[in-house]
Each structure stands twice: as C-alpha cells, then as structure tokens.
Structure to design on (60 residues):
C-alpha cells in the first residue's frame, strides 16, 4: 500500500493506519478515500497529496 504525503504540511497518510479520528478505518487505500477527504492538519484537498514512492522520496 502506498503512502501519500501532503506537500503543504508534510502529513503522511498511511493506509495501514488510516485516520480513525476522521472516520477513516485502518487498511483504507488512499484511492478509496472519499473525494472530500482533506488533510487533517492543514485542510489540503485530496488531489494535493503526492504519492510517496520508496525509490524517489529523497527530494524531500
Ligand atoms: Zn497538510
């Protein structure tokens, strides 16, 4: 499962953890999040998130 990162504040969405505080059960793929999902920290839209690939996550 891919981790997605908010480019604005650095929040990481990890599908293994989900976001229970916001009603997202663990094991929920980022792709399966509702379209109105927003970053719980800064409110960035789902479309702002960037996929974090293991190979290319070192350009910050
Ligand atoms: Zn954010």
């Amino acid at each position: 499962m891919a981790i997605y990162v908010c480019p604005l504040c650095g929040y990481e969405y990890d599908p293994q953890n989900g976001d229970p505080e916001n009603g997202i059960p663990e094991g929920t793929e980022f792709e399966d999040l509702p379209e109105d999902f927003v970053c719980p920290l800064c409110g960035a839209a789902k479309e702002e998130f960037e996929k974090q690939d293991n190979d290319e996550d070192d350009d910050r």
